[in-house]
Amino acid sequence: MAAIETLSTPWLDAYRPAGGHDALLDGQGEVRQHWRLLLKALESLGHASLSSRADEIQHLLHDNGVTFNLPADESGSLRQWRLDPLPLLITPSEWRFLEQGLRQRSRLLAAVLKDIYGPRRMIDEGVLPADALYANPDFLLACDGLLLADDPGISLHGIDLTRDAEGRWRVLADHLQAPAGMGFALENRIVMARALPDLYRNAPLKRLAGFLDRQQQSLAALARLNRDQLSLALLAPGADHESYFEHAYLANYLNLALVEGGDLVVRDSRVWMRTLGGLKPVDVLLRQIGDAWSDPLELRGDSLIGVPGLLQAIRSGGVGITNPPGVGALEHPLIAAFLPDLCERLLGEPLLIEGVERHWCGRGDGLAWALGAFESLVFQRLDGDLQCIRPGTLDTEARERLRQALVAEPARYVASRVPAGASAPFLDRDCTTLLPSTYNLRCFTQAGFDDERNFHGYEAMPGGLAWQGAPGLAMQASQCVKDLWVMADSPQPHVSRLRRSRLPLVVTRDGMDLPSRVADSLLWMGRYGERLDGRLRLLREALYRLMDQDQEGIADETLIDLLPLLGLDRDDETGATSRFAADRERLMTLFQDGHPDALPDLIGRMINNGRAVRDHLGDDAWRVFNQLRQESARLSQLGPVGGRRAVDTLMTQLAAFFGFCNETMPHHYGWRFMDIGRFLERAQATLALLRFALLDAAHAGEALWEVVLSSSDNATAYRRRYRSELHPAAILDLLLFDEGNPRSVGYMFKRLERQIEHLPQPNDTPYRSSEARLLIRARAALHLADLEALAQVEEPAARAALAALLEALEVPLAELSQAIENSHFSHAEVPRQLVPMQAQGDA
Amino acid sequence: MRYRVCHTTRYEYAAPVSLCHNEARLTPRPLAWQEVGETALEVSPNPSVLQSRRDFFGNEVSFFSVQELHQVLQVTASTEVETRPRPSPPASANRDWQQAVRHARGKPALRQFQLDSPFVARHAALARFATPSFPVGRGLLDAVNDLNQRLFDTFAYDPEFSTLATPVLDVLHARRGVCQDFAHLMIACLRSLGLAARYVSGYLETLPPPGQPRLVGADASHAWLGVYLPTWGWLELDPTNGTWPDERHLVLGWGRDYGDVPPLKGVMNGGGSHQLAVAVDVEPLGA
Predict the structure, then answer these.
(1) By residue range, what is the domain housing residue A802?
(2) Lesser CB count within 10 Å: N end or C end of chain A?
(3) Which secondary-structure segment (H or E) carries A608?
């Protein structure tokens, strides 16, 4: 480092901290030493370049999609969460303090956990009021004594911090039930490294890879039974949860199976995963569902995301779990209020990082303090949802009501004073100005184990997340996040993203351990994708005709037939001129939400199934998926011309999506199910189209046959092959019998048969599965059909023969779907509670 | 008194059940005045897992899993119990009830029985209802006896009225319910006044009408409550009968409310709709 020079850069012109501690400028207004490198880098990048890097960051973030999953967003797009190109720097000496403090906090909470679900000495000795447990909705009686003696108790701990205006670090909250954010932190780091490689590579910052590497080891150490090949899983609440993408991301990074409650079952006091290959044992669960939802038998009976019998499996040592259910009690503000005392008593040392000033109104002078500073405090009701009530923001009447409730029942409240925050530099959205803002951090610690699986203390992740906002603002509510850079004394080697596992690797190729639910979702993703494709092709034809009709002012008969094929009604009463308007309006309903066959609905269903299997899709496929989602969001604003273009775009995106899937997914069971879904759907749609065009349509004939060919994109193939007028025999040959044409039913049957042959046979019988038999039936009907006899579609006999043939193909296909469901997705029904008994005794 | 208690619960399902996990709290609790002899828990079909532990309150819990396909689950708990008269509180326990409230406030072990629990929430309306029994300065014993009697006198026993989770305020409003509701209501009243009260789950020997034989299996689970008397201990009260429990009241266990001590609960996979039949038999064995 050069000697201190006064650094002057236009970046600092508008930077005016409020007067409290600032991360960038010291008390004299000089740039702190460790920020100089970064400011110089900003300087040399220049505004334009920085702005394009910031764009790149947003793109990478969006493509990876690990931001919060907020399906409620009406626009259908992910909320834009801005990642500031400028990281938050922590100096080595600041980190030494923080690291010690964070590790101490985990040690302390683990000790408190063991006490409150064990001897409860801290209650008996009066260190902790009994209300901290008994008025605490997250203190779960069923978890009493759940921990085994050698269990570290807490093995993953998320800690929210802020820095107050005086420059003191303060803990704001603990996250133990489902600590979120590690995936974001990891993703932010990877994105930063890609977007700002020069800055990132040269910076002497601590890397995250080692910490995450050891997390897998830490999980493995919790296994209760000694098995050679451990199976570790991340228990997630499912695809609708706001952190789902992070769960998928972490599971992939840490090489854990991503499972939901419904994938798991407790038998013989152990936890098993339902897979295509039957039940597979699970040794350790990284739990990301709330405590109360973990086990509908002993905890909340209405939980649909938990695993019945899980607590007993934990008690019996049948499964290792982290963090153990019950830890949520420690997140309660009343326990936080007593941590300084608990630390002295349990660890015999002072609490290193203070919390906020916080008092229970039910003890000593807590009430007097709370009433004295009433309007500047935040109140939380112990037994409620812990929502923060700020008297300062209430109207007079509500404020008085709160004051009265507080005086009447002080023991129900805890009051805290949220400190004024320090500031740190944030780049504005345009990357033109550096502005000071208050901020929060989330850091993580995890339990460390030696090679003999002995717990040897906690380590802190040298990094984390920072977000803009007043102290205590929830991460999800912030507009802007930052990567947290813990500076090292010397440059650190870059570590590859693909870590070397310390666990014995299980080389598997068959994919038998695929959860049945995942296979089910992949199949339906394929089906909806294909249904969407078919719908798009027909819609495109209809839009072409609509526009022709507009120009030529004449009615197109084909359109009359196309509307019902697209699931739309048509009444013929209206005259020719208004008919155009009416047809147009009907077609455009397919671009709106609400109609069951409308594009946004189909896209939505495909996306929902795809999201549920995020960890099985490649990043490229996922990127296209996100584009599809964005395209879907703007459909409702389009007219016919824009609509037709959007249809083309969507078709291309669909093709790209399935193309990426075919190119990058291993061709194992998962891919096979997706493929079965696609070709099952395509075969059904093709048969329906043929039936309609050749038999059922009001205006059957060449115009409609052309639609059949174009909508299967076979018009060119037809012309090249037959160089002739349209003829039903040729159409039937091309679309039914020609097994070399991927748009023919014959080809689809062959493909389905091949895929089904490769599926696992759960019962391991020597006989053909019912799926295979159904396909043989369908293929035989096709092979035995006489094309000559069918082709004269004007003749009643030929029509009857064609109708019979189509039915002979349609029926087994319809049964096939159910047969696959029965053989492979027999996920047990949702667990339900027994009707409980009531004590009725009288006299 | 000596009894043989036999408690059979039978679930019949419309569709087969592939797996169920259950928790039973069907073993009477050994107490100074209640000796528990041989006990047996029979489950059909045979459970693959059967484990016992003590819950947070010290009640015995049996966890069992039935892992084979079944359409009927039958659980029979049978126990021999010998009861003796419960000790009566001394006159000194009848001190000013408000003093008792102050006394109980500082006891961590009582706190969970003073606060809200899932089925029992304190409320000003409950305190108002209880107040006539609790005038200033009245002895605690007299006050709780009076409340117990008022509940017995003014509430109708009506198995049609309540469901498992009838809120206590509804019971207060309708003045009807079953033993569980009356126990919850009285607990809620006592807690609303600041006293510590707990729910007791058990059985009561029913006496046949004069001149008629005892009906086997016609008994039922019963519920009452305990209130804490400072310096003495828990006094049990049975508002359904307006009495203090006696030798005919057999204790299974206790908790904050029903939710802590359901005799049997379970979660099953499959089954469709199901029917529940319960038969309880409290058979006196003579001296």
Answers:
(1) 668-830
(2) N
(3) helix A599-611
Contact A271, A260 (CB under 8 A): no
User: According to the model, what pLDDT value does residue A553 have?
Assistant: 62
Place of tokens 């759940």: A146
Q: Do B22 and A297 touch (CB under 8 A)?
A: yes
Task: Calculate the CA B17 to chain-centre distance.
Answer: 30
Identify which has the larger pLDDT, A520 or A66. A520
* Amino acid in position A591: F
Nearest chain A CA: its distance from B56 CA (Å):
6
Is A509 part of any domain?
no
Q: At B118, which helix (H) or strand (E)?
A: none
Q: Is the previous residue joined to B45 through a cis bond, with omega within 30 degrees of 0? A: yes
Residue in chain B nearest A310 by alpha carbon: B21
Cite the residue boundaries of each domain of chain B with CATH code 2.60.40.2250: 2-84+262-284
**Mean pLDDT on A495-511:** 51
The answer to whether the Cβ–Cβ distance between B108 and A843 falls below 8 Å is no
Instruction: Give the nearest partner residue to A840 out of B51, B201, B221, using CB atoms.
Output: B221
| Residue A504, domain member (yes or no) | no
pLDDT of residue A225: 80
- What's the rounded Cα separation, in Å, for the pair A418 and A164? 9
What is chain A's mean pLDDT, rounded?
86
pLDDT at A73 over 60: no
Distance between terminal CA atoms of chain B? 6
- A267 with B269: Cβ contact below 8 A: no
Interface test with B, best of A310, A404, A834 (most B CBs within 10 A): A834
Residue A633: pLDDT above 80? yes
From A649, A639, A530, select the one nearest A590 (Cα to Cα).
A639
Q: How far apart are CA B41 and CA B216, in angstroms?
A: 19
Parts of chain B with a pLDDT under 50:
none
The amino acid occupying position A648 is D
The answer, yes or no, to whether residue A77 has pLDDT greater than 70, is: no
Shortest Cα–Cα distance, A832 to chain B (Å): 5
What CATH number does the domain located at B2-84+262-284 have? 2.60.40.2250
The rounded distance, in Å, linking the Cα atoms of A429 and A432 is: 8
List, for residues A553-585, the tens digit of each pLDDT value: 666 778 888 888 888 876 655 555 577 788 888
Contact A141 B11 (CB under 8 A): no
Of A132, A135, A96, the residue nearest A112 (C-alpha): A132
Nearest CB partner across the interface for B223, out of A131, A269, A841 = A841
How far apart CA B269 and CA A274 sit, in angstroms, is 14
Show which of residues 171-190 on chain B sit within 8 Å of chain A, judged by CB atoms. 178-180, 183
Mean pLDDT lowest among A19-33, A118-132, A283-297, B265-279: B265-279
Q: Tokens in use for A505?
A: 């690797």
Which residue of A124, A129, A316 is in closest CB contact with B51? A316
Q: Is the pLDDT of residue A105 over 90?
A: yes
Predicted TM-score (pTM) of this structure: 0.84
Interface A:B, Cβ pairs < 8 A: 148
CATH architecture of B92-260: Roll (3.10)
Contact assessment for residue A312 and residue B51, using Cβ atoms and an 8 Å cutoff: yes
Structurally, chain A folds into a number of domains equal to 4
Cβ atoms of residues A129 and A360 within 8 Å? yes
B102 in contact with A, Cβ within 8 Å: no
Predicted confidence band at A63 (pLDDT cuts at 50, 70, 90)?
low
Task: Collapse the DSSP code of A326 into the 3-class scheme (helix H, G, I; strand E, B; otherwise coil) and give the result.
Answer: coil
Can you give the pLDDT at residue A51? 87
Chain B, window 49-78: residues with a beta carbon less than 8 angstroms from a chain A beta carbon: 49, 51, 53, 55-56, 63, 65, 67
Whether B91 contacts chain A with CB within 8 A: no
Shared domain for A188 and A268, answered yes or no, is yes
Distance from CA of B139 to the nearest CA of A (A): 25
